[in-house]
């Protein structure tokens, strides 16, 4: 599970808080959707969650392990799909997966087995021996997804994971997310596509101007039939509402 | 014209964008930035002070050349060629990577701008970069030559023109050389590692050709009236006369340079004007010719660069192999693959392996060969009793400086990661282990180069093998220490977000700091060794030589250990602080 307590972050080149006193708790076996307009603080939160950025204040725990105090142990529980596609262009797909697997302490056998499994699932077997630089946007995204899941992480963090994916791959990814959650793992993902969030997530949070503005289960949202997730999103993220 | 200027501005500013981007910040951050800039300025001043003896020596040599030759126009033309050789050596790769290795095609092709405007803008930016080398070469070569020759005002009036014209020929030659080379490199398809190796080999060949030409022009001509130790003035004068005789047959073929120098050294206004107009006109004509020839080629490279993606797989499925080789080993192997397959980073990182041994060979050509069967400078020196003590030290100092200051694997271990740095930051591996892998790779590359150089030094310069071994170990230790320090510095202030590694590198602070650290290492070695060398010279006791090398080795061990500890203690703090 993931816990964020009063987490804040201001970038060194900025005066405004990218994330302001954020507190969240995401349970095991849950698919958690993280919504927000551009520049709301979604990616910053995810970067702090994965140990890429250090929070200015507050604590972040991954399955009970504090990521600031014990980053290596916390990161070994995580799988991360970034929103950019700046992966190692001059490596072959399989070399990148080998590299990632080694870093997560996987044995050669496990690596081979998992790569075969996920490459087949995402139709990447033919492409793996090629240079990442020659991949399309969607192929890079699929490689990132495979790299994030091969070591069976307890917590899977995905930043805009469906961008650039073809419908088949998007469907498989959503299935995989559900499988992971059903196995008792936590799936935390951000997206702009409200329909997808509505279909896939058990619970959602909306962030705006670095502050958490709404957290609820989809069942509760659906209980009030007059309020769709889209209208809720538009209402709570409008500037007037924020003020 | 407006589009051309806008493009030049955009491409030129892109090189410095990371510096410019740091402006908007709070007061505290501004103060921090101010301190950082002051630190950078201090580094440059200190570095200039350290390099001053070398540059002053060269300037003094040029002064005497001017004085002894009386401002000979052929010798002057030769010196402009020497300056241009420097610009060419530092510029060819810049042209190849900036102009013909197209990485920004997808951002340029959709613009409503003609191909030739883009090409001219890129060429202009490369030219502007080379102006700095041109200015330095003018300051240490041509100006002292002119002062020595006691030339008139016309010479000084022409200096700004010379500054602008000197990079022209190297730029044009560089462009012409780059075309077949780029085509050759492109012919190797998608094998990026072979491309990088090919680039390095080509660069070495160009350097060797340049040295051969210098040799052919009579730079190494001997004297028939004794040797340099007996009568240095006569020796140098003889060389100058012989050189001038050879140069007067060759230099007029380099007509734009010859006319430029004729103008600079002209006695009358008419000669000055004729030379000026001819030099200017010929350079412009050459530029036009090169544009005409190279534009279709650039257009082809631009188109090719956007057609590279989406190629059919070369390998059949299931042919890939995976293996867990351990974290540090996997890091090093992955880093080697990534570096070698990247055209720009690979060249900068691995060229040193060939460069340093090549310089040893060139040094041997300059000192170990004589033209007319006379005793060579090297032979004269090697019979001196102090040769086996001083020569290894001098070479050690030189190689340490070169190795530590040019090894970009160690100078930019973090900046090299660029926008993919987040991958390292998200891995469940301690930062110390990541950095150790990077420093070990940088040191291994340096030691490989050092090893080949030491073998060559023992073989060509007659240095005893055990001194060669002592040099190698000392260099490896100092190299490791230096890589640790430069790694910490890069970690503290990495340059992330570059598009062109060469441009990012040229203007980066770390290069200067690495040079300064290398110089400080060299000074430390010299300071520690000098008393023992003097004592050996006075007493002839072999144990002083032993003590000297032991002291150097201890210095190397201490430096390596202290540097590693500094890196280990700072790594996590700085790594966590990086915002990507």
Shape of chain A: globular
List segments of chain A where confidence is low: pLDDT < 50 over at least 5 consecutive residues. none
Give the tally of β-strands of chain A: 10
Count helical runs of chain B.
Answer: 24
Overall tally of domains of chain B: 3
Question: Could you say which structural class the secondary elements and strand pairing of chain A correspond to?
Answer: alpha/beta
Number of helices of chain A: 10
What distance separates the N and C termini of chain A?
A: 32 Å
Share of helix among residues of chain A?
25-40%
The overall strand count of chain B is 0
Whole-number mean pLDDT of chain A: 89
Weakly predicted, low-confidence segments of chain B: 18-25
What's this model, at a glance?
Chain A has 243 residues and is α/β, with parallel strands linked by helices. Helices cover 38% and strands 24% of the residues of chain A.
Please characterize this protein's 3D structure:
The complex is a heterodimer of chains A (243) and B (580). Chain A has 243 residues and is an alpha/beta fold. Chain A has a single domain, classed as 3-Layer(aba) Sandwich (Rossmann fold), CATH 3.40.50.300. Chain A is 38% helix and 24% strand. Chain A contains ten helices and ten strands. Chain A has a six-stranded mixed sheet, with helices on both faces. Chain A has a four-stranded antiparallel sheet with strand order 2-1-4-5. In chain A, strand 1 and strand 2 form a beta hairpin. Chain A is globular and about 50 Å long. With 580 residues, chain B is mostly helical. Chain B has three domains: 38 residues; 236 residues, no CATH class; 256 residues, no CATH class. Helix content of chain B is 80%, strand content 0%. The longest helix of chain B is centred in the first third of the chain and has 43 residues. Chain B starts with a helix and ends with a helix. About 1% of the residues of chain B have low confidence. At the A-B interface, helix 2, helix 3 and helix 4 of A face helix 14 and helix 19 of B.
């Amino acid at each position: 599970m993931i816990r964020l307590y009063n987490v804040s972050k201001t970038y060194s080149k900025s005066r405004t808080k990218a994330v302001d006193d954020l507190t969240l708790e995401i349970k095991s076996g849950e698919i958690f959707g993280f919504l927000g307009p551009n520049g709301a603080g979604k990616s910053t939160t995810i970067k702090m969650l994965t140990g890429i950025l250090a929070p200015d204040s507050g604590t972040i725990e991954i399955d009970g392990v504090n990521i600031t105090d014990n980053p290596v142990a916390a990161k070994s529980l995580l799988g991360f799909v970034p929103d950019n596609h700046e992966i190692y262009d001059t490596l072959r797909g399989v070399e990148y997966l080998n590299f990632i697997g080694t870093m997560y302490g996987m044995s050669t056998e496990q690596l081979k087995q998992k790569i075969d499994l996920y490459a087949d699932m995402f139709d990447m077997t033919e492409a793996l021996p090629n240079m990442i630089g020659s991949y399309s946007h969607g192929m890079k995204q699929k490689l990132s997804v495979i790299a994030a899941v091969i070591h069976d992480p307890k917590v899977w963090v995905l930043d805009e994971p469906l961008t650039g994916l073809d419908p088949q791959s998007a469907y498989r990814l959503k299935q995989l997310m559900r499988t992971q959650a059903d196995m008792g793992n936590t799936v935390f993902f951000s997206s702009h596509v409200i329909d997808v969030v509505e279909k896939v997530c058990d619970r959602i949070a909306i962030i705006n101007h670095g502050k958490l503005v709404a957290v609820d289960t989809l069942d509760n949202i659906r209980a009030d039939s007059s309020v769709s997730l889209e209208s809720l999103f538009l209402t709570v993220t409008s500037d007037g509402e924020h003020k | 014209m407006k589009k051309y200027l806008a493009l030049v501005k955009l491409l030129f500013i892109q090189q410095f964008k990371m510096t410019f981007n740091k402006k908007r910040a709070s007061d505290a951050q501004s103060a921090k930035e101010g301190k950082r800039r002051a630190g950078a300025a201090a580094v440059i001043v200190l570095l200039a002070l350290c390099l001053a003896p070398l540059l002053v020596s060269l300037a003094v040599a040029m002064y005497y050349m001017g004085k002894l030759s009386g401002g000979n126009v052929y010798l002057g033309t030769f010196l402009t060629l020497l300056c241009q050789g420097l610009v060419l050596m530092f510029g060819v790769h810049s042209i190849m990577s900036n102009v013909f290795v197209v990485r920004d095609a997808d951002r340029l092709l959709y613009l409503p701008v003609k191909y030739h405007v883009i090409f001219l803008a890129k060429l202009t930016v490369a030219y502007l970069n080379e102006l700095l080398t041109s200015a330095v070469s003018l300051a240490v070569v041509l100006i002292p030559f002119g002062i020595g020759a006691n030339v008139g005002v016309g010479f000084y009036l022409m200096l700004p023109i010379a500054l602008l014209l000197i990079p022209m020929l190297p730029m044009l030659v560089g462009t012409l050389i780059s075309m077949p080379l780029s085509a050759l490199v492109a012919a190797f398809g998608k094998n990026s590692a072979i491309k990088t190796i090919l680039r390095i080999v080509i660069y070495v060949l160009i350097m060797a050709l340049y040295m051969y030409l210098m040799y052919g022009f009579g730079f190494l001509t001997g004297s028939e009236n004794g040797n340099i130790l007996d009568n240095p003035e006569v020796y140098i004068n003889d060389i100058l006369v012989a050189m001038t005789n050879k140069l007067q047959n060759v230099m007029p073929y380099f007509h734009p340079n010859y006319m430029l120098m004729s103008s600079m050294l002209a006695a009358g206004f008419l000669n000055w004007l004729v030379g000026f107009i001819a030099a200017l006109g010929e350079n412009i004509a050459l530029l036009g010719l090169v544009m005409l020839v190279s534009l279709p080629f650039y257009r082809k490279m631009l188109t090719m660069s956007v057609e590279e993606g989406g190629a059919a797989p070369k390998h059949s499925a299931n042919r890939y192999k995976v293996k867990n080789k351990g974290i540090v080993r996997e890091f090093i192997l992955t880093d080697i693959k990534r570096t070698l397959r990247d055209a720009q980073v690979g060249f900068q990182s691995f060229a040193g392996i060939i460069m340093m041994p090549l310089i040893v060979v060139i040094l041997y050509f300059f000192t170990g060969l004589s033209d007319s069967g006379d005793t060579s400078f090297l032979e004269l020196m090697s019979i001196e009793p102090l040769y086996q003590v001083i020569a290894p030290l001098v070479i050690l100092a030189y190689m340490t400086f070169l190795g530590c200051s040019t090894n970009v694997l160690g100078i930019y271990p973090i900046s090299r990661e660029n926008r993919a740095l987040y991958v390292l930051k998200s891995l469940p591996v301690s930062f110390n282990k990541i950095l150790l892998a990077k420093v070990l790779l940088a040191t291994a590359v340096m030691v490989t180069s050092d090893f080949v150089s030491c073998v060559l030094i023992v073989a060509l310069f007659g240095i005893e093998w055990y001194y060669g071994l002592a040099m190698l170990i000392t260099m490896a230790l100092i190299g490791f220490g230096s890589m640790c320090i430069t790694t910490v510095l890069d970690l503290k202030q990495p340059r992330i977000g570059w598009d062109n590694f060469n441009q990012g590198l040229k203007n980066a602070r770390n290069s200067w700091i690495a040079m300064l650290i290398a110089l400080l290492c060299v000074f430390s070695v010299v300071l520690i060794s000098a008393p023992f060398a003097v004592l050996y010279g006075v007493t002839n006791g072999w144990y002083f030589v032993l003590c000297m090398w032991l002291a150097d080795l201890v210095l190397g061990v201490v430096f390596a250990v202290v540097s590693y500890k500094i890196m280990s203690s700072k790594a996590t703090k700085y790594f966590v602080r990086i915002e990507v």
